[in-house]
Fold:
Amino acid sequence: SKGVRRLVHMSSVGLLDDWPPMRWKWWVSALFGGMLLTVIRSAKTDLTQAELAIQESGLDYVIVRPTGLTPNWVPNGFEVQGDDKSQNLGMSVAKEDVGAFLLNQAIHPTIHRRAITLGSNWEAYNNVLKQKKANK
Structure:
C-alpha cells in the first residue's frame, strides 16, 4: 500500500448497509437474499470482508455495488442510488457503464469514503425490456 491514496473497488449489490438493495418486488428480494445465504455464500463472505477491510484502511475509497452486470446490455447511462433508497434502479446495468464510472472515480474522484449502489435508470431499463419483448 506504499503510496496508494485512493482505492476504487467493485463489490456486489446487497451487502452490509445495502440491504435491501432496491425497492424490488418482494419475491426478487427473497430470491436474491436466499442466493446470498446459500449458493453464493462464499462470495458474499469474501466481498463483505473486503469491504470492511477497505473501510478500516484509512484510504480514500469508493466501493461500487452495481446491480446486475450484464454483458449484452446496451449502455444507456446509470444512476447512483441515494442514501434513502427511494429511487428504483434497473436490475441490469451495462458493463461499459460500470467500467466508465469506475475509471472516472479513479481519475476524477467525486465520491469519498463511502459505498454506493450503481444501476441503470429505471425508466430506461423498462424501455429496453419492452423493446426486447416486442422483438421476440
Notes: The radius of gyration is 16 Å. The chain has a mean pLDDT of 83. The beta strands are 6-10, 60-66, 68-70, 79-80, 89-90, 92-94, 114-121.
